[in-house]
Design brief:
alpha/beta, globular
């Protein structure tokens, strides 16, 4: 059965993910270095990792399996997840793929360099209702694809 892993620090779609997962009876792992409220649902596992730059990422990569789905904005984490045969979706609904991850990593590195040099000073656009709607559709599509492929 597909399981969902949420890179939960600053994830704006935790509640939406929990609702979709509950509808499908899927296990959800909310991984963070703290600050997540407990959930009474036995299908929700709150994982608090030690503080550290990649502690949550490392935990997710260590536990995720082919056919699982991760929710993250972290492009290097998404790359590691894809290499394990799992899926990765951004909170705005953009699904990472083997075809897109190289360009996403290159763009991330370019934008970091531009911000560091002062050429770019802004961040991403604010999270919108359209982003939330695209996310819900992408998550549902990924879950349905997993069920059709008989994953896990």
């Amino acid at each position: 059965m597909t399981e969902i892993y949420i890179d939960a620090d600053a994830c704006p779609v935790k509640e939406e993910t929990l609702k979709v997962a509950a509808r499908h009876g899927l296990m959800v792992h909310m991984v963070s270095d703290g600050g997540i409220r407990p959930d009474a649902n036995p299908k929700v596992r709150i994982v608090v990792v030690s503080q550290g730059a990649d502690a949550a990422d490392d935990w997710i990569v260590e536990h995720i399996e082919p056919g699982d789905i991760a929710i993250t904005n972290d492009i290097p984490l998404a790359d590691r997840i894809l290499k394990k045969g799992a899926g990765a979706i951004r909170p705005n609904g953009q699904a990472f793929s083997e075809d897109s991850i190289g360009m996403a990593l290159a763009t991330r590195n370019l934008m970091a360099d531009l911000r560091e040099s002062g050429a770019v000073t802004g961040g991403p656009a604010p999270f919108s209702k359209q982003d939330r709607s695209r996310f819900l559709q992408a998550l549902e599509t990924a879950i349905q694809a997993g069920h059709q492929n008989g994953s896990k």
